Amino acid sequence: MLNSRLLQQFIAVAEELHYGRAAQRIGMAQSPLSQAIQKLESYVGTPLFLRNKRAVALTPAGRIFLEEAYQWLKYERTAIERTLHASSGEIGQLSLGFIGSVGYGFMPDLIGHFRRSYPDVRLRVVEMTTKDQIEQLKGRSLDLGLLRTPLVQEASFIETRLYRHDHLMAALPKTHALAGQKSVSLRQLSHESFVSFSREKVPTAHAQLIAACAAANFYPHIEQECSQVAGVICLVAAGLSVAVIPSNLASLMHPKVQYVPLSDTTHHLSQEVSLAWRKGDGNPALASFLQVASTQAPHAAA
Questions:
Q1: How many other C-beta atoms can be found within 10 angstroms of the C-beta atom of residue 164?
Q2: Which of 243, 272, 274, 267 is nearest to 257 (CA)?
Q3: Model-level pTM?
Q4: Distance of alpha carbon 163 from its chain centroid, rounded?
Q5: pLDDT on residue 90
Q6: What three-state secondary structure class fits 18?
Q7: Where are the alpha helices (DSSP H) in the chain?
Q8: Minimal CA–CA distance to 133: which of 115, 117, 120, 145?
Q9: Chain segment 165-177, per-residue pLDDT in tens
Q10: What is the tens place of the pLDDT at every residue in 41-89?
Q11: What does each C-alpha distance from 47 to 26, 57, 67, 125, 262 come to in angstroms?
């Protein structure tokens, strides 16, 4: 049966074309080497060497086998190297979910840093709600999520790490009477119709809006719900509603939407974005991503 040692013995004879020199080169006696080559030829089913008292030469089949032997050993070295790289998180696969709001903020930079540090890890990156991320983490179709915390639903199998805080702001139609203000209070919006993130798909953001408005002594009139950022901005642009959204979305410019800071000091306007993964997940690529994220997290994220 073929193995690396037998191939190395064959290569030594093929390169030296002399059994004595080949045996000395690989540190074995000439007779066992000759027997090993005979067994190899028997296994392959055809002579690999032409032999006489004065010379040793490769047969045409032997020359082909030499090329394949080089490749065999190369593949073996590559397999070992890739296995070691995979065990250290330098290569592998990672499925990452993210909420839409971070896609317009810090996430592209985080992904960029990871790609530069680990270019051989294959990334699958999918936008999805916090709820969907939790479900896919549970189903093992997702390795890591960037989602809103604290988690409303029970998720004891998930471990989270706070990555960043963000302050919420108001999104108003450009034609709104308060659109030109330097800041507004939630109380000034108490009679408006709100578009909220979906209670079902984005429960944390939905609950946060209600809690922030309650701190301003009113209950928001939620007329529309959307599960994605683009839908929220679209409805605000149409003049149907106002919204409270993360301030990192200020980079998502729309000619019919005005972003205005909120003057309220309630802690309900501070949003957490965290990394989430399955407890005990041994994927080395996951550990590599978490390490990169720890170097990119703001020092003042508290």
A1: 23
A2: 243
A3: 0.63
A4: 15
A5: 59
A6: coil
A7: 4-16, 19-26, 30-44, 60-87, 100-103, 107-117, 130-138, 203-215, 229-237, 284-296
A8: 145
A9: 889 999 999 999 9
A10: 888 889 999 887 778 899 988 888 999 888 888 887 777 676 665 665 5
A11: 22, 11, 16, 54, 85
Residue 131, token pair as written in the block: 């709820």
* Beta partners for residue 162, in sequence order: 274
Token reading at 120: 């051989």
CB atoms within 10 A of CB 93: 12
Q: According to the model, what pLDDT value does residue 236 have?
A: 96
Residue type, 57: A
Question: What distance in Å separates the CA atoms of residue 146 and residue 144, rounded to the nearest whole number?
Answer: 7
Residue 184 is given by DSSP the state: B
pLDDT score for 51: 85
- Answer positive or negative: Cα dihedral of 85, 86, 91, 96: negative
Q: Which residues of the chain have pLDDT under 70?
A: 1, 80, 82-91, 152-154, 299-302
Q: For residue 249, give the DSSP letter.
A: G
Q: In terms of residues, how long is the chain?
A: 302
pLDDT score, position 300: 36
Residue type, 278: R
Question: Would you call 135 helix, strand, or coil by DSSP?
Answer: helix
Four-point Cα dihedral 155, 157, 161, 163, nearest 10: -60
**Bridge pairing between strands 120-127 and 91-98:** parallel
**Distance (Å, whole) CA 197 – CA 190:** 18
Q: Output the CA–CA distances (angstroms, integers) from residue 283 to 92, 221, 286, 292, in the order listed.
A: 9, 45, 5, 15
Which residues are paired to 194 by β-bridges?
222, 242
Distance CA 149, CA 13 (A): 66
Q: Which residue has the tokens 């073996």?
A: 76
The predicted structure's pLDDT at residue 85: 59
126 with 96: CB under 8 angstroms? yes
Dihedral of alpha carbons 234, 238, 244, 247, sign: positive
